[in-house]
Amino acid sequence: MEIWDLYNKNLELIGEHVRGTQMPEDGYHLVVHIWIRNPEGKYLMTQRSAKKKTYPFAWECVGGSVLKGEKSFDAALREVQEEVGIALEEQNGRKVLTQIREFSDDGTRVNDINDIFLFEYDGPIRLSEASTDEVAEAKWMTRDEIEALWHGGQMVRVIKDLSYFIQNEGGIF
Asked: Which end of the chain has fewer CB atoms < 10 Å from its terminal CB, N or C?
């Protein structure tokens, strides 16, 4: 059973929530998305495994839910280690944006607060050292390759408009 802290829109802690149960309309859980860039300017993208209930085989950056009592930066480091086997160094990352979502693109209520991080990393992908089987494949991609996946409907739609995000938010690309 996974337990999350529950927040209001102002990021004030208001309780806790059990994953898989109905999210209260005024409660939000914290999620992290981690963009990892190598010295060649490529980004580490992961393909979700067939076992994922939502968006199987879709591409995304590394990400996941922040656990009860955990800070989003610590969750970012944990998720990368779990999903792709890479131990990132704290000094190589920063939070670039926080987005609040109430509904997903398909109209489902999600109530999440997305902390988006950028990390610089110069090393190999270590998928064989991942502690989960959430990722089917991981590879370095250019901005153009990522945009092609987005426009081809092959990416998870957490960010509402990737083109706007690329051009205006956080200096990731």
From this structure: N
Domain carrying residue 137: 3-168
* CA atoms of 64 and 62, how far apart (whole Å): 7
Q: How many angstroms separate the CA atoms of 2 and 18, rounded?
A: 6
Separation of alpha carbons 29 and 17, rounded Å: 8
Task: Please measure the distance between the N-terminal and C-terminal CA atoms of the chain and give it in whole angstroms.
Answer: 36
Residue 121, domain CATH: 3.90.79.10
Q: Per DSSP, which regions of 41-172 are E strands?
A: 43-48, 59-60, 62-65, 93-103, 109-120, 135-141
Q: What angle do CA 97, 16, 89 make, to 5 degrees?
A: 40
Q: CA 89 to CA 113: how far, in whole Å?
A: 24
The answer to whether position 38 is within a domain reads yes
For the chain, the domain total comes to 1
- Tell how far CA 51 is from the center of its chain: 18
How many residues appear in the chain? 173
Residue 56: inside a domain: yes
Task: Identify whether 91 is part of a domain.
Answer: yes
